[in-house]
């Protein structure tokens, strides 16, 4: 299912505009949720980058410090066409701090270097703060109304189209892989393709749920819910349903959809049947995820931006700021606001 076919939480926008006319229009600041320990075998390098993708910078840091690329980790990918701040973690035993003053990479500026005890792992961040400039907005009044809706009720927590590659190439490749038409040997590429597969199925289930119920806050029997901002989830029992429904409406809990894989996906009864009938449409991809030992997980279907505020620079130019939890996409929030032109390729997790 293409992004254009996915439903909107507030209906299809009537406003058009341009996101990310330049890299400076899209600023991302990674929020790890903690400060470095100041000691330990891990070296944390926080930098600001423009025009570089995350893996490219990680490899450059490894070469500079003469360590294997596998010894460099980061919490999430940040895209090339933006101004982003993020922290790279390099395993570097020893008490001496390396001299990073000689590190040079076009578009990169080191902001902080410190020691830390624990390795940064994928997904191990609190979230990301975004500061966006949206241009050529066609209707200021309609945009204001839409902004108020998003600030209050949120947006669908879709994986952005950038997860699927240019023109959906990642989905094409993972489908070919599942059918045995190609072999994928590179570990990073395999991970990327598997992620694209389960992201697409999550989007499809979430859109179908929105179509069936008209919102993402009405419980089904056997639903799995997640404490807002947390990764753990639980199945709602019949005697808990009324209380849980109230907590969902207060945004304390979120309804979830599956990230397909091996093991129990979580839901029971009506919710399980609803999800399974959609996942069953992709038997090859589901089988591949199980074969590759990708564990099933859950993801919230709704995201409500925090600290959302905006300012008009003129009648057609808007500065929009907000914070999203780890794994949520700024472009999915902006998708609820306006029909977009410009470069849309952010990856922020």
From TrEMBL:
<comment type="similarity">
    <text>Belongs to the pseudouridine synthase TruD family.</text>
</comment>
<protein>
    <recommendedName>
        <fullName>tRNA pseudouridine synthase D</fullName>
        <ecNumber>5.4.99.27</ecNumber>
    </recommendedName>
</protein>
<feature type="domain" description="TRUD">
    <location>
        <begin position="154"/>
        <end position="303"/>
    </location>
</feature>
<keyword id="KW-0819">tRNA processing</keyword>
<feature type="binding site">
    <location>
        <position position="329"/>
    </location>
    <ligand>
        <name>substrate</name>
    </ligand>
</feature>
<dbReference type="InterPro" id="IPR050170">
    <property type="entry name" value="TruD_pseudoU_synthase"/>
</dbReference>
<dbReference type="Pfam" id="PF01142">
    <property type="entry name" value="TruD"/>
</dbReference>
<feature type="binding site">
    <location>
        <position position="128"/>
    </location>
    <ligand>
        <name>substrate</name>
    </ligand>
</feature>
<dbReference type="InterPro" id="IPR020119">
    <property type="entry name" value="PsdUridine_synth_TruD_CS"/>
</dbReference>
<keyword id="KW-0413">Isomerase</keyword>
<dbReference type="InterPro" id="IPR042214">
    <property type="entry name" value="TruD_catalytic"/>
</dbReference>
<dbReference type="InterPro" id="IPR043165">
    <property type="entry name" value="TruD_insert_sf"/>
</dbReference>
<comment type="function">
    <text>Responsible for synthesis of pseudouridine from uracil-13 in transfer RNAs.</text>
</comment>
<feature type="active site" description="Nucleophile">
    <location>
        <position position="79"/>
    </location>
</feature>
<dbReference type="InterPro" id="IPR001656">
    <property type="entry name" value="PsdUridine_synth_TruD"/>
</dbReference>
<dbReference type="InterPro" id="IPR020103">
    <property type="entry name" value="PsdUridine_synth_cat_dom_sf"/>
</dbReference>
<dbReference type="InterPro" id="IPR011760">
    <property type="entry name" value="PsdUridine_synth_TruD_insert"/>
</dbReference>
<feature type="binding site">
    <location>
        <position position="26"/>
    </location>
    <ligand>
        <name>substrate</name>
    </ligand>
</feature>
<dbReference type="GO" id="GO:0160150">
    <property type="term" value="F:tRNA pseudouridine(13) synthase activity"/>
</dbReference>
């Amino acid at each position: 299912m293409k992004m254009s076919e996915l439903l909107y939480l507030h209906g299809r926008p009537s406003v058009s505009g341009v996101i990310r006319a330049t890299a400076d229009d899209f600023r991302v600041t990674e929020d790890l949720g903690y400060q470095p320990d100041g000691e330990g075998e891990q070296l944390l390098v926080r930098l600001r980058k423009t025009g570089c993708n995350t893996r490219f910078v990680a490899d450059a840091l490894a070469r500079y410090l003469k360590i294997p690329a596998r010894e460099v980790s980061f919490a999430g990918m940040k895209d090339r066409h933006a101004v982003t701040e993020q922290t790279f973690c390099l395993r570097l035993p020893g008490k001496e701090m390396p001299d990073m003053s000689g590190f040079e990479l076009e578009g990169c500026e080191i902001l902080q270097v410190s020691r830390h005890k624990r390795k940064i792992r994928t997904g191990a961040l609190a979230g990301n703060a975004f500061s966006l400039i949206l241009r050529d907005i066609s209707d200021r009044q309609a945009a204001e109304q839409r902004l108020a809706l998003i600030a209050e009720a949120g947006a669908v927590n879709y994986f952005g189209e950038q997860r699927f590659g240019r023109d959906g190439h990642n989905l094409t490749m993972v489908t070919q892989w599942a059918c045995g038409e190609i072999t994928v040997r590179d570990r990073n590429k395999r991970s990327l393709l598997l992620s694209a597969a389960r992201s697409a199925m999550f989007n499809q289930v979430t859109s179908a749920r929105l179509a069936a119920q008209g919102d993402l806050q009405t419980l089904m029997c056997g639903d799995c819910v997640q404490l807002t901002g947390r990764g753990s989830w639980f199945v709602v029992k019949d005697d808990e349903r009324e209380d849980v429904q109230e907590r969902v409406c207060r945004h304390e809990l979120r309804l979830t959809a599956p990230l397909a894989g091996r093991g129990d996906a979580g839901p029971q009864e009506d919710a399980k049947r609803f999800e399974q009938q959609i996942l069953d449409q992709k038997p090859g991809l589901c089988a591949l995820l199980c074969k590759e030992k990708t564990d099933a997980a859950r993801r919230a279907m709704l995201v409500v931006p925090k600290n959302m505020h905006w300012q008009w620079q003129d009648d057609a130019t808007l500065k929009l700021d907000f914070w999203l939890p780890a794994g949520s996409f700024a472009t999915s929030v902006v998708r609820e606001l306006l029909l977009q032109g410009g470069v849309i390729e952010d990856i922020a997790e």
